[in-house]
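hey so i finally got around to running the thing on that chain from the lab meeting. sorry it took forever, my laptop kept dying and i had to restart like 3 times. anyway pasting the input first so we r on the same page abt which one it is
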Amino acid sequence: MENIQNISVCFDVSLVTFHNAPADINFMSFIFDTLAKNSINVDMIAQAAPISAHTSISFTISDDDVGKVLNLIPSLREYSPDIKAVVSSGNSKISVYGEFMRDQYGVAAKVFKAASSVGADIRLVTTSEVDISLLITKDQENAVEQAIKNSF
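ok and heres what got predicted. didnt touch it at all, straight out
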């Protein structure tokens, strides 16, 4: 297996999750349009598989933007009164990048095994063909980063 080309760490990341959100693209559009209009940069985005007409939507923002998001929750509840918002600040994002990942099996297994070896508290995972990003608690960033580097 080839070596990863890059491991990056992003600090001071907050996870925002809306539980019991409508499982429709109109609501997702409304959320991200509202965030954009309020100059809130969104990074990782994940949606849980819908259950009936509801889902959970998670995304990350800078810790600096938590206050803005909290101020927007009432307007989001006007659209969907049943959503439950959960915000967790003080996280770090570790991204593993490599073009070789497109055609290589087992990369995710190595990353997750490395994170597991140090007892990482994984809050969110997003992937692409060439990237695996893990949101972890800030206090674990050095151990997780080193474990991933050692595994490759």
